[in-house]
Amino acid sequence: MAVSLGTDGFRLARIAALTFSAALGLAAAGLMFEASIQDGVQLWDVLRTLLILVTTAWLAWGTMQALLGLPPRRTLPERGEIGLPHAPTVVLVPICNEDPVATFARIAAMDASLDAAGVNADIAILSDTRDDTAATRERDWFARLLAERHGDGRIFYRRREVNTGRKAGNIEDFIRKSGGGYEFAVILDADSLMEGATIREMIARMEAEPELGLLQTLPKIVGAQSLFGRAMQFSASFFSPVFARGLARMQGRTGPFWGHNAIVRVRAFAESCGLPSLSGRPPFGGHILSHDYVEAALLARAGWKVRVDEDIEGSFEEGPENVVAFARRDRRWCQGNLQHSRLIFAPGLKGWSRFVFVQGILAYVSSLIWGAFLIVSIVAAVTAPAPDYFPDIYQLFPVFPDDRTKQIVGLAIGIVGLLLLPKVAILTESALNGRAAGFGGRLSALRSVLCELLLSSLLAPVMLMYQSRAVLQVLTGRDGGWPANQRGEGRLSLSDAWRASAWISVVGAASLAASTYLAPELLIWLMPVSLPMVLAPMLIAWSSQPAGQGVFRVPQEDQAPAVVAAYRDIHGTWAGHAAPEDTGTGGRLDAAA
Amino acid sequence: MSAEQQISARHHNASAIEGPHWEPPSAPLDMPTQVLEAQNRWVDAVLHWLSAPMLRLRG
């Protein structure tokens, strides 16, 4: 059944999602409260109820997003055939301390793909690299890129003296100095890869809708090698399109911007998105870190439409290869999202933009709330008064307290159900509409989903700890900065993993010990959380090991997209005789080819 | 000789051939700074209230 929600259908979708989330949150809170008050109402019971209300509503929100995305689109977004010559377009590649061999090889592949698609776009590499030696390497490899692609006059490179405002400042600097020459700008990350035909399609959609200020694509992950990386790659290809379609059904005119693999109308961006430096010191003051969400909100504030079109194919990026790299990136995003708390009440923003900020904050704070829920549950059990079997003095028979196990088990099943439902629903959808064929067939997709569920369940408590620490660090005023991505770091030894996660093992062991001595009846409930924490170093090291293609198969692996294949070829040639440490990320991709 | 050394040798020093043609063409565009901070004094107060106990813990 295809679904078209019509012009105002997004309001209906938003109301349905919010109502569903609120209803399930309240139901969970009701069950928890009923189960908690058998020995009288205490502070801990109220706290526990509030915490389960927020966490369940948050889980239900994610579930609803997936359910909304299940039916296919009935109508595709407005599109037109690209007029030739098309509007002047530039592809922006901001870089900062990246491996130049891999970065410029990607650009060479995209340039060739643009050429083949008949797109006449300039490419501007905007370097914020601080290290002079690294900058010299960039210049060397840029010279080769120019020579091989005959790029004089259409492929540009510049390095800023001062990297004010980081990536957002880098783009802003380009727009202030050179933006007047272009109608559209495709914004990429250093690890982005886009087909020329995809960029052509994006230009066509922008030309067809003059009020469209920004069009975001859903990038798929390519080149993953480790178990963790491949699980993320599978998840991004199998689950994310459905979640993104659900998001698209709720977006209206206020869709998302994820910072890269998107096209903007330069004039709209220039007139709306000049970011101020926030008053005060980091982490809450200073430059806006997660600038993309804010830029989307500002475009919408100025009346421009911002939209994600998840149906656009040919948009790729790379992902972290292990939990530690993921957590490092997450630390930056956590700070960026919590900083948005300063902007929730910024003047003139659309209501949905404000809500998106709240969502971003909840995405991180929810980990802390889950952690708080577990702690409060232990405290509540420890401080609960002993049962009074003879409340009346002249009572002949004892009165046993009501057994509330049913409520608690019901609640646990409900929460697990909320976690499983989207994945099971998406698996069913893929089996029914044939999408599973791209993932090795129905059985292969089923095996991958089961493995992903197992892996994500094992790693969830570890992620919860990293996220909780990140939130606490930001709240205590610790600025994590915005360190460059360390792409290509893959396999971790047990000692590497131990150094990065020993504290999680200690917390896990302490929670088990505390529960054993103080509240043994909770031990069985804590096991699924505490055991993975104790085993965190082993899990992190194990999941960072290279994994074969037996599980987590994705379509882009069976047949590499043209631009990805071209990148691998170019990178292979360029890095062919280089020392292994110079091959960077591309080395992994070559191995995958 | 590594590929990278070959590149360097071929171009002697890329920075020597670097010139204005490497820079994107000049076409200035005004980009006014947006106002985002207003009416958020109480949000700051909430943030301060949330952070204060943590800061005390940190000493």
TrEMBL record, chain A:
GO terms for molecular function: hexosyltransferase activity. Pfam families: Glyco_trans_2_3. Pathway: Glycan metabolism; osmoregulated periplasmic glucan (OPG) biosynthesis. It is found in: Cell inner membrane. Keywords: Cell inner membrane, Cell membrane, Glycosyltransferase, Membrane, Transferase, Transmembrane, Transmembrane helix. Residues 186-381 form the Glycosyltransferase 2-like domain. The chain crosses the membrane at residues 12-37, 49-70, 361-387, 407-428, 449-466, 522-543. GO terms for cellular component: plasma membrane. It is a multi-pass membrane protein. NCBIfam families: PRK05454.2-1, PRK05454.2-2, PRK05454.2-5. Belongs to the glycosyltransferase 2 family. OpgH subfamily. This is Glucans biosynthesis glucosyltransferase H.
UniProtKB/TrEMBL annotation, chain B:
Residues 1-30 are annotated as: Disordered. This is Uncharacterized protein.
